[in-house]
């Protein structure tokens, strides 16, 4: 069977993922085991899970979930988790999204996969390396025009997440993500330049069942005319634990360009469910609608998260 260009790019992304996972396994196998309590009798076994604390006691609290606890994922919502995966942990998050938009009689349908994000804990519990790869395809058609199809890989996403603080009362758990995309994508999809950005994440556990969080981003972007501008993104999300394994979320987010000629502000409302098959495996589904003229009309998707 002859592979299409899109399939070849998906295969390349999977190979990259396997390579990163193998490298992480080698690095973890070579890590020395050190009993820090022998060096510092005041050291707590809980370790230093965040870079900073709101207030300081005898030890650091908070940080990533333990291996005996359910994983915490960035997907499926737009708002990413405000915690890292933890040192020596690798987590892959993958999925598929269908999007449809009808703008003045011009209909666009797109498919996005594998939406692969590798999150690799390195150096300390509060540091996480991130790399993402995706291959979108789209077809635009109108009654008076022939259809136009575009398929190929997006620019590669690189970044790292810093776990800043745990929650302390009304003070939030926070993380900061310096990030960028590099021009490695399909000629019809690449920005052609490096696009840096920053993502600030924050959340609160209100009760054992209810949580609230948000994110504030600013990223450099490029419009259809090739002009660079900045895009500000804001999101707010509410999470509910329906059972021990089943979770529900609802979310609003906005993408607001600054200095772009042909890009409009996009408001969205979405929601979905997560199901924990085990502490290390999570499944999800989601759907959303556009709330403004510049937004896509509808999107829906599904995916999974696996922790190693």
Pick out its properties.
single chain, 308 residues, mainly beta, Porin, 12-stranded antiparallel barrel, 9% helix, 51% strand, globular
* Shape call: globular
Which strands sit side by side, in order, in the main sheet? 1-2-3-5-6-7-8-9-10-11-12-13
Query: Would you give the CATH topology?
Result: Porin
Low-confidence stretches: 29-46
Number of strands: 13
At CATH's second level, what is the architecture?
Beta Barrel
Per CATH, the class reads: Mainly Beta
SSE sequence, one letter per element: HHEEEEEEEEEEEEE
Number of helices: 2
Rg on CA atoms, Å: 21 Å
Beta percentage is over 45%
Kindly report how far apart the N and C termini lie. Answer: 32 Å
Largest sheet: 12 strands, antiparallel, barrel
**The number of domains:** 1
What does the model show?
The protein is mostly beta strands. It has a single domain (5-307), classed as Beta Barrel (Porin), CATH 2.40.160. 9% of the residues lie in helices and 51% in strands. The chain is built from 2 helices and 13 strands, in the order ααβββββββββββββ. It has helices at residues 5-29, 36-39; strands at 90-103, 106-121, 127-142, 145-151, 156-165, 173-182, 195-205, 210-222, 228-241, 246-258, 266-278, 281-290, 298-307. The protein has a 12-stranded antiparallel beta barrel. A hairpin with a 2-residue loop joins β11 (266-278) and β12 (281-290). The longest helix is centred in the first third of the chain and has 25 residues, at 5-29. The model is unreliable at 29-46 (pLDDT under 50).
